[in-house]
Amino acid sequence: MKAHGTFTPAKWDEKTFDQIAPTIKITKASVVLDFGAAGEIAGKGTVEWLMFYSNSDEKDQHNSTASYVGLMRFDGTLNGSAGSFVMEDRGTFDAGALNATLTILPGSGTDALREISGSATYNTSSTGMAFEMEYKL
Hints:
By secondary structure, the chain is mostly beta strands. It is built from no helices and eight strands.
């Protein structure tokens, strides 16, 4: 099965925990993503990211370059099936462009999504963040 949607950050709390050089650092970001209330993908994602900035521009973060890893828990509906699951998230941010791949972690599904497996991607698009999933139930 496939599902498409978009998301926007509803909460972003990022803190530096290792300042390696003036423009190089490692941070931890606690983020809530809003997938909206309707559509093929609806609900919210709660994610913890560890981010390595090879170039951090404090004046304009859109000029920064970073790689990140994290765990995201999605809670909502996929094509009308309700539940939650956890995904491993790996991505890059470079000059405003975001690209990531995610893998659904086995055994993390609940309710109608209990047996879910598959993968997802997201990237920057003209309408926000485009999110696509391919999964089995």
